[in-house]
Amino acid sequence: MNVRNTNNPKHPGTRIVDLRDIDPEEYVIGIACESDPVFIRMKKMYSDQEVGLGRKMFQIFEKRKIPYEHHPNGVDSLGVILRGRYMNGKNKLEHILGNLEKKCGVNNINIKDISLLSVTGRGMNNHVDSRVRVFSALARNGIYDRAIDSGADDCSFFVGVDKSRGEDAVRAVYNEFYGKK
């Protein structure tokens, strides 16, 4: 795909391609943040041994036509990140939480409004310290990670931070990779 500027049609534009050569020095090529997500954190003992628990949870969202963003998990805990814009009308958060408690048997549900930081770059795989640099930049700026999703494609990962710190997180990671050298 070639993205062109209608105000400057002679400019060659930007090419978006499936494959490209990666500069050995390349780490991160994109940093973005979304401030709409809602992080639902649930505790359930032995959830990692329960067959069908994920299906039950995702059927609740499917029935209500709510897509999910991410699904970070831990020991005896489940998490799902949804876009806040879907939490209205019959999909009010209280209804969803009630269904999760009833159909999945989860308890100790905690809701966290977060900003979701996205860090992208095919070159990250060529550097063992890519994620360390991101989390170090966040820590130096007093920004806590509230959720982590490494993604399945190895060229992006996501970090949930306190909603009020989203812009700070972008700035911290940007400065880590593109700031003063």
List keywords for this structure.
alpha+beta; 4 helices; seven-stranded antiparallel β-sheet; 181 residues; 26% helix; two-stranded antiparallel ribbon; 29% strand; 9 strands; single chain; VC0802-like
Quick description:
Helices cover 26% and strands 29% of the residues. The protein is α+β, with helices and mostly antiparallel strands.
Overview of the molecule:
- The protein is α+β, with helices and mostly antiparallel strands.
- The chain has a domain at 40-111: VC0802-like.
- Helix content is 26%, strand content 29%.
- The chain has 4 helices and 9 strands; from the N terminus they run ββββαββαβαββα.
- The chain has helices spanning 53-63, 93-104, 130-140, 166-178, and strands at residues 2-3, 14-15, 30-34, 37-43, 68-70, 77-83, 107-120, 145-149, 156-162.
- Strands 3, 4, 5, 6, 7, 8 and 9 form a 7-stranded antiparallel beta sheet that branches.
- Strand 5 (68-70) and strand 6 form a beta hairpin.
- The chain is globular.
- The mean pLDDT is 89.
